[in-house]
Amino acid sequence: MKWFKQTVFYEIYIKSFCDGNGDGFGDLLGLTERLDYLVELGIGGIWLTPFYPSMQVDNGYDVSDYCAVDPLYGTLADFQVFLREAKKRDIRVVIDMVLNHTATNHRWFKEHPDYYIWKEQPNNWTSFFGGSAFSWDVERGQYYYHSFAHEQADLNWANPAVKEEIKQVLRFWLDLGVDGFRFDVINNLTLDLTFPDNPVDENGEVLHKYDKDQLGIDGVLTELAAFCRDLRPDVFLVGEISSDQLPEIARYSHPELLDVTFNFNFGSIETFAPEKLFQELVEMEKVLPAGQMPTLFFGSHDMSRSFSRLANQNLPLAKLLAFVILTARGVPFIYNGEEVGMSDLTFASVSEMADIQGIMAYEQGITAGMSEQQALFDASQKTRDKARGPMIFADGQAFSTANRTWLKQNQESSEKVQQIFAYYQRLLAFRKLAKYAAEPYTLLQYEEECITYQRGKYFFAANFSKHKKAVAPPNGRLVFGQEEQGRLAPLSGAIYLMEEENEDYY
Fold first, then answer.
1. Which is the catalytic residue, given 154, 240, 280, 385?
2. pTM value?
3. Containing structural domain, residue 447
4. Is 234 a residue of the active site?
5. Annotated catalytic residue: which of 184, 211, 213, 259?
6. Are 390 and 398 spatial neighbours (Cβ–Cβ below 8 Å)?
7. Does the annotation mark 184 as catalytic?
8. Which of 118-122, 180-184, 356-360, 491-495 has the weakest average pLDDT?
């Protein structure tokens, strides 16, 4: 069985995870120091957000050099130490790889302009951050295409030289020993340079139709995936797909393409509803090719924290959400801080924001005539910084010693932190011991706000209602969770062993 099918991954937003040198920014030194924390939690894999040299316009997703480490985070030697220490602890490492675009200060932008996309006149394509997707370059006297910020110039994947350059980048990191890649917005790669205008909806909004999922994308991904697997047969390839259409997301999950793709329809549910959650579980099973696994997550650095957005500060509900992603069929991704119930940050001024998406929303609001208060509210809704606050650890240590004032101001309840961390810890330990991770569903149903499913010899029940539920299956023995007079408590999960065993778990 492929190793990733049994692994629970932990996403680390490096800039705010742990500051090892006291300069106010998370770094590789701090990350290495906290590896034992991840061992204590029970994590088997890390997804590390970009740490490459960058203009930091988009917090590292504007890469200036693919084969180096930004001094903000340390050195390449620091990365190698981190990688070596992670492997000593049986923790796999997957790194973010941004292949759609580079920063405009990447040496390629001046030395190899043919690696990018140039137009005499822009069409109607818009940036995913808002505004035109074309910016004027004075030196060249042409417009260049950028599907995100204007400092993020899109690569010309119709040029074979780009593909060869990227292969050498992938080789560099695989040779160093990384276990895989998370490919950022990988279906956005530009191969068609004809640039037909995108359609416009009834509200005048330009729709992203021709600027993603272009003809030839499957061939490029097949070639890149084969290249990685030839170098390292057990490499793990994850795709972020910029689509809300589940069949489009699922089609890139294929034995010749990517191992898994992120389903943001599941992960970024705005308002919690158990029937919506159940329906996404069902739909993922319908559309995925045979043998492929879905991803399971409720948070990332790109969205509001699940403890605020979904659980609404409700600790039992937050624990039950953790129960689902760690017992349902799929590859789980925990965003750093979820295991202690971290909440969204709030902002008194746009000056407190670093995220380009929030800053642009504020500037566009002011330009449109909003008051500063209105523009700040709009920016606060759209900024991804609210999920990128300094990490709080269950052992009471702060992001950095200089950050303890912030920790006190944040007033996270020590009791809450300990409760949710212990729950994650127990559930992760049970998942590893019970070995149901790759088992298919033999039952998946929903009734009266209760989701139940069976995988192998285990029966799982997630009671999202406010009432006790009689959910125990015939001949099932409770091995995880608690019952009250034979009924499952409100907002709680339970696991039953369906065979007569002498094993005692929890």
1. 240
2. 0.93
3. 441-497
4. no
5. 184
6. yes
7. yes
8. 356-360
